[in-house]
Amino acid sequence: MTQRVYLVVLLLCLGLMCPLVTGIFMDKLASKKLCADDDCVYTISLARAEEDYNAPDCRFINIKKGQLIYVYSKLVKEKDSEEFWAGSVYGEQYEDHMGTVGYFPSSLVSEQHVYQEANKTVPTTDIDFFCE
Length: 132
Description:
Helix content: 10-25%
Order of helices and strands: HEEEEEEEEE
Mean pLDDT: 83
Largest sheet: 7 strands, antiparallel
Number of strands: 9
């Protein structure tokens, strides 16, 4: 009986010391992505939104017409799927959204400046589609 009490106390203490991670793994949009480097951390290009886009779920970002977006990866299109790029908004007027990375349809933007070629094919992982 005493051992059970110690075990329960130990588990409670561990639970209090480890923060809970909340979130959900969403369906993958693609199995591969194109990046400028193996870790997909370098900016590929700067794009301008040609029209507004309202994110359908937490994997995506909202974009407004005229908004600048840093592009970090480009999902490799599969069969009947739409082509999506991953990026974050840019500009002082959008500073409350800067740093938030998400997907958006590539058909809604035009590349303004290419920094590096996206010539590394990297497999996507579950974390690429994780939502908090």
